[in-house]
Structure formats: structure tokens, C-alpha cells
């Protein structure tokens, strides 16, 4: 099936097409899922190399499980977030103290150099603050406020109750706010 | 989002605005985008692990049967046809070898005489000699 006809097809249906040898589905799933998986891994791990390793491994597992995928049991993204979280947690346990300053420079030419520097400083500050959170809090905050998942889906990803998700995100935000409190002016937040 | 945990102090408006701004910017952070090289590696993995397309075999169309083969099959196969051919050749040979003597014999005469008995003999071998 041509790639441009697959943009509206749900991930789960594309996975069935992929399992039946549809090369277009492989391309569509790669383009659709890789940024989300990589981004989440990056937020969890704090550096590009580890994020690529974890994202690649998570997606390889998806390709392998595709022929046996059971429709209706879980969303592909939910399953992937769970695999990424498990892989990232394992990696963090093995090697604490990952480099948090290995963030690549943005390539947006529309922004002025000053804007780019401030935007980069904000993202670095957020990433550094996220790195201070316990793993579960960081995962919940990232899924809720950056990936944009709803609490029920986060509960499914993390295998906890919705109430536990709300508690984790609330505690995480409280800790983030505290970590960033002294940087408001430095980050350009002078209003209100 | 309102904090529901009573143990956790709610965020101030300023704190909320700070975090909301950072989260919003983080969603579009280009540093969190995978590189083209990484995308290519993932796609290569996907294509390498992809099962082969299911092949649906076309129905096998029977080859056309020559008319000669149909005739042979109708007659009971090549063995029956070869026996039939041998009997035919033998009959022709007997006819040629016998020549005029056959017609001059009693049997030959009976075959060309128009009588009721001859007709009967043509129908049934047991009447073959009644015309003599």
C-alpha cells in the first residue's frame, strides 16, 4: 500500500500490514513511532547515544512481536512506552550518572542566536531538573506533560493506578518547580 | 492540573507558568528529534525483521488435452488401442492373404448370396453355415 495512503491508518492496523510484509507499513510506522520512542528515551536517559540504543532496541522488539500482536489488547504506543521505560530503567540502574550536557545544538535558523541560546538554556535546565527526579516520577511527568498522554494510559504504561499517576506527577512537578525556582530570571521568565 | 495529593503543596501561579512554558517548549525541542541516520537504521531494522509477503498461489489451470489423447483414453488407454490396432492389421492381412480363394469358398459364396439365412449369418455366427 502506498505510504501516502497510510497516514490515517491506526498503528495497530499498520502493524498487521507490516506483519504481512507490507514495506509501506514499515516506513510509516518507522516515521511515526521513532520520534516518540526516541524522545521519551532521551528524556528518561538524558543523552543521545543511550536514547538511540534504547529506542532502537524497543522498536526491534516491536518488529519481532508484530506477527503475534493481539489486536485490541494494548495500543502500540502504550506498549512501546512501557518497553522504553523498562529498558531505560535497566540502563540507569546499571550506570548512574549519565551525561546530561550532551544535548545537540538546535538547527532552527529562524531564531536569533540569543533566542536559540535562551531556548537551549531552558531545555537544558528542564532536562537537568528532570534528571533529579526519581525514575518513576520522571517517567510520569514526561509522559503526562511532554508526551501528552492521559492519566489512564500512563497508568497502563506504568502498571499502576490512575491515582498513583496523579500523585507521581504532582510530586514530580513540585520537585521540578523547586529545582528551577532560582533560575526564573536566568531563563527569561520575568513576568508575573 | 490540580494537585490531588494533600501532602503536596500546590504550585503557585508563577511556578505553574514556568513549568507549563518549559513543557510546551520541550514538546518541540529539536534536540529530542532523531537524526536522519538513526531513522535510517531503524527502518533498516524494520525491513530486515519484516516477514515475507504472503504469497497467494494462483489456481492451477489444467493443461489442454490433445484430441488424440482424449480418443485413446476413450478407448481404454494405449494398451487397448495397441491391441485393437494389432487385431485390425491381422484382419487386413488375412483378407489380403486369402485373396479370391475366400470368395470362391462356401463361406465366401454364402456371404454374397442373398438369402434369409445369409442375413441371419451376418447377425449371428451360429447361423453362418445355415445357408449351405
TrEMBL record, chain A:
Pfam families: Sigma70_r2 (PF04542), Sigma70_r4_2 (PF08281). Residues 32-96 form the RNA polymerase sigma-70 region domain. Residues 124-176 form the RNA polymerase sigma factor 70 region 4 type domain. InterPro entries: RNA_pol_sigma-70-like, RNA_pol_sigma-70_dom, RNA_pol_sigma70_r2, RNA_pol_sigma70_r4_t2, RNA_pol_sigma_r2, RNA_pol_sigma_r3/r4-like, WH-like_DNA-bd_sf. GO terms for biological process: DNA-templated transcription initiation. Keywords: DNA-binding, Sigma factor, Transcription, Transcription regulation. The keyword Transport does not apply. GO terms for molecular function: DNA binding; sigma factor activity. Belongs to the sigma-70 factor family. ECF subfamily. This is RNA polymerase, sigma subunit, ECF family. It comes from Shimia haliotis.
UniProtKB/TrEMBL annotation, chain B:
This is Dihydroorotate dehydrogenase. It comes from Shimia haliotis.
